[in-house]
TrEMBL record:
UniProt protein name: Proline dehydrogenase
Sorted UniProt keywords: FAD, Flavoprotein, Oxidoreductase, Proline metabolism
Its job: Converts proline to delta-1-pyrroline-5-carboxylate.
Statement: the UniProt record of this protein carries the keyword Flavoprotein: yes
Entry similarity comment: Belongs to the proline oxidase family.
Listed SUPFAM superfamilies: FAD-linked oxidoreductase (SSF51730)
Cofactor entry: FAD
Biological-process GO terms, alphabetical: L-proline catabolic process to L-glutamate
Record InterPro entries: FAD-linked_oxidoreductase-like, Proline_DH_dom, Proline_oxidase
Organism expressing this protein natively: Cryptotermes secundus
Proline dehydrogenase domain segment(s): 224-448
Presence of the UniProt keyword Flavoprotein in the record: yes
Gene Ontology CC entries for this record: mitochondrion
Amino acid sequence: MATSGPRHILQVVVTSCCRHGSVRMCSHSNTSTLCAVCKTTPQALLFSDHHRAFQHKSTWELLRALLILRACGSNFLVDNSLKILRKGQQIFGDQILGLFLHPTVYSQFVAGEESSDLAVTAKSLQKMEIRLMVAPTLEEDVGESSLRQDKYDKNLNEMFRLAEMTHCHGGVHPCLQTKITALVSADTLRNLSHIYVKKKADSWRVMVQHMASAMLNRVQLPDIPGINHRDIENMSIALGRFRQLGEVAATKNLCLLVDAEYSYVNPGCSLVALAMMAVFNQNRPVVANTYQCYFKGALETLTLELDVIESLGACFAAKLVRGAYLERERELDTTNICASYAETGDNYHRVLEHALMHAKKAGSDRCLVIIATHNEETVRHSASRLLELGLDPKAGHVVFAQIYGMAEQITMPLVHAGYLVYKSVPMGTLSQVLPYLARRAAENRSVLHGARKERELLQQELSRRLRSMFQR
Ligand SMILES: Cc1cc2nc3c(=O)[nH]c(=O)nc-3n(C[C@H](O)[C@H](O)[C@H](O)COP(=O)(O)OP(=O)(O)OC[C@H]3O[C@@H](n4cnc5c(N)ncnc54)[C@H](O)[C@@H]3O)c2cc1C
């Protein structure tokens, strides 16, 4: 088998050829051609090869992952995970709680706190040709805002520290995620979101221009009807932080990914993300926004934001996700949310299609689409669409991403098939990562097909290793 780039391409085709599973029959060197023999696309990327998926994991790591997935089978534990973690923190304190959590859940999902921790994780990812996406775990919710700015200044310094680490250990084109609520009061964002929740392209474009100009020229935002003076001041100060963060990302060659949060702050977060795109994405995609496809209006949101960014002459960049805050969003307003898991999947594919069409039109230097999912069907569908649209999976403008500690059975086949894949690696102290860990518990509920399959594959790989130990 060939050893460089084309080797990967061969594998895409081999896995796709259900009828001709041999390399020779299916060999060709062009990603955009179908298999010469059976004319299939990579629809059958194999996601059940447990040996290959977990070959880089120790047996203890597999056992730990399996135990955690089993615990996520308990609805009681998952529904109350954050409460249980917070109570444990109150009763035992971080140190004692850490004795239990550090070797288990924390190590499964979090790389650590220090540069040396990230170095170890980054090295092991690079060995497998997986790219690095660092995920800070700084965030706040409405009602937790600080009247003083020093909380957000401190968070900015932490973002600089993480940007430096990402730059040092990141390898090729590393990404750094960020939450807007880490750098400006969530209450201010909610108030701004109230005004901008109804999406009208013209008013959005004007507001994005005001923000971009305030960011660039270091001046206060003009008055906005319905927004009080304190919020204008908070946002004006925060735009200075976003400018500094954008400058660091641009100079350190990082891509800064703005995470999507709760619906009541998201329009405010998007305005900031778009203003940053307008400022920093003139020549290449430095800043990206995130689109949550469990919202019925996700396509409308992406289309509007893409139009605004194109009209400002900047490069558009998007991370596409299903959305991590389903339960809470349902409590707030069920009418905005897709009625079922299948509907969210269909919505994701519609949004993806629009983003891919733009990627094709804009070209590899002026666009970035991150397909951030653990969903097999979506990954297969995306791989097929890339091939059908003639989008080169190695060009770097359409990439995949999964979360550290999850979905190895998706990540490894994608890497072996020659796609560019990132792992989102969280960094933070135990107390910072508790909400993040609670969200991962919800995503690993055994009712979801992905979690069930991962559990089965872990079991199969552990059994295989046990058998081979006894056969020796
Ligand atoms: C790299 C990366 C970055 C991410 N960044 C963000 C981010 O910025 N913001 C964010 O919110 N999330 C983010 N996520 C998490 C993401 O939104 C999902 O929660 C997670 O990836 C699980 O979805 P999935 O596509 O992997 O597929 P699956 O595991 O197949 O789908 C699970 C998802 O489907 C949806 N769903 C489940 N049941 C139903 C139902 N009954 N009705 C409607 N929808 C349902 C929910 O969104 C749920 O999370 C990120 C994920 C990755 C991999």
